[in-house]
Task: inverse folding
């Protein structure tokens, strides 16, 4: 018998008063066959199947659920005297366990739960690992409510667009959102700089007379540790060698711009728990923005697109870029209009360093 499994049996085979008795009953039932399928076990299986079907709609592929997909058919036909669950689903395991307790006890079955280290009985009583008695109804009802609230939230989410699960689809959709945000003017500028307006623009490089590289990278990637999605964006500027001295007072030979400097974001004044900013020795600040909701994700992509369009018309020649910097410094551009809810005007800079 697995120490962390969940075991269900009909109390006609014994009602334990402590853990030792529960384990003894289960040992006695190992290999024991009923003369016919047990209607109490069948009713239990039918009730559990309702929970499994509902959960499977949203968590298809979960190993704990997949092992129970045939629970109604199995319990309606088996002659075995006990039913076992090797492990619960990864999502909401306590709610799953409480569904077992409810379905079993309402059909005169007892439950030994290895992870909980408790035994649950049809009369509403239970006892823990120390054989201390308690009533299980409040615990089960609380978890039932948590589960139903969660299901309603998932149902509501079904009607909303979702951030694509695959990186390829996220990149493709990112490109479409940028193009839609920036419109025909953006396409015209791409063509002007020798970039096909048909290509993907989630990340791309433009080379002009002034810049050997004007590199845009818009990325939403899954963290390998917490499995959350994080939005990242940067524009890299690499000035051609022959213009480095001429532009020395305006821009370093190599620099970049991201959401942190452009929109004035800081760990000190942010109350958004999804934002994390790391600062390096050279003063560069790196942003990781956790995204869970589609609408927030789109707004971040649009904010990045606005950044691209702020620089893009002026990167062709040194004369155009100098005029742009001068206009920016004089407050004659739309820089002040491009903001985010988290923007601190005092922290805004045109370049990261």
Result:
């Amino acid at each position: 018998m697995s120490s962390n499994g969940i075991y269900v049996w009909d109390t006609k085979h014994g009602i334990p008063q402590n853990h030792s008795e529960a384990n003894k009953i289960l040992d006695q039932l190992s290999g024991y066959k009923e003369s016919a399928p047990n209607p109490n076990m069948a009713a239990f299986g039918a009730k559990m199947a309702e929970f499994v079907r509902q959960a499977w709609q949203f968590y298809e592929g979960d190993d704990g659920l997949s092992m129970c997909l045939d629970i109604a058919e199995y319990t309606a036909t088996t002659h075995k005297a006990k039913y076992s669950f090797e492990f619960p689903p990864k999502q909401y395991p306590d709610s799953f366990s409480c569904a077992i307790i409810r379905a079993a006890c309402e059909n005169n079955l007892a439950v030994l739960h290895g992870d909980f280290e408790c035994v649950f009985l049809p009369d509403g009583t239970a006892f823990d690992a120390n054989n201390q008695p308690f009533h299980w109804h409040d615990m089960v009802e609380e978890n039932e409510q948590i589960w139903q609230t969660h299901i309603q939230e998932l149902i509501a989410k079904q009607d909303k667009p979702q951030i694509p699960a695959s990186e390829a689809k996220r990149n493709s959709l990112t490109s479409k959102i940028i193009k839609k945000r920036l419109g025909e003017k953006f396409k015209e500028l791409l063509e002007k700089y020798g970039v096909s307006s048909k290509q993907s623009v989630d990340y791309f490089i433009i080379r002009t007379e002034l810049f050997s590289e004007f590199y845009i990278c818009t990325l939403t990637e899954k963290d390998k540790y917490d499995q959350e999605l994080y939005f990242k964006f940067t524009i890299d500027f690499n000035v051609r060698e022959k213009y480095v001295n001429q532009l020395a007072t305006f821009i370093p030979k190599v620099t970049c711009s991201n959401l942190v400097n452009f929109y004035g974001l800081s760990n000190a004044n942010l109350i958004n728990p999804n934002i994390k900013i790391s600062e390096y020795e050279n003063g560069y600040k790196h942003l990781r923005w956790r995204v869970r909701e589609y609408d927030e994700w789109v707004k971040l992509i649009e904010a990045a697109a606005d950044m691209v369009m702020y620089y893009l018309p002026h990167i062709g020649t040194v004369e155009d870029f100098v005029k742009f910097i001068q206009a920016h410094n004089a407050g004659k551009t739309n820089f002040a209009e491009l903001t985010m809810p988290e923007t601190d005007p005092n922290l805004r800079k045109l370049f990261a360093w």
